[in-house]
Specification:
By secondary structure, the chain is mostly helical. The chain has four helices and no strands. Helices cover 81% and strands 0% of the residues.
């Protein structure tokens, strides 16, 4: 069994490192908030990330096969919900639910 002082010191060091690592991003973000580049990216990046995810998910999808129907239907539901309600959470949840239901029931392998 290790010495009590050693154990307390180890816990204190681990707590200090954990606190420092969690506080570091907030300290680093403070000067970046005024940056024009960061402000530009904050408005453009969400759409860019979504486009990259759609391309990644649909890349290589054989659209002539029946198994492509679930992802394409989910994409249609996601886009439709977003155009209708303008709510990202609803769009993502609706598209995900559509894909899960179709992929696990109708178009299951």
């Amino acid at each position: 069994m290790p010495d009590t002082g050693y154990t307390v010191a180890a816990v204190l060091v681990a707590a200090a490192v954990t606190w420092g690592l969690r506080a570091l991003p907030f300290a680093a973000l403070t000067p970046l908030r005024e940056s024009g580049t960061v402000q530009y990216l904050s408005t453009r990046m969400p759409a860019g990330v979504m486009v990259i995810l759609v391309v990644y998910c649909l890349h290589g999808l054989p659209v002539t096969e029946a198994r492509a129907a679930a992802p394409l239907a989910a994409l249609s539901v996601t886009v439709g919900l977003h155009l209708w309600r303008h709510n990202a959470l609803l769009s993502i949840l609706g598209g995900t639910a559509t894909h899960v239901i179709l992929a696990s029931t109708v178009f299951a392998h």
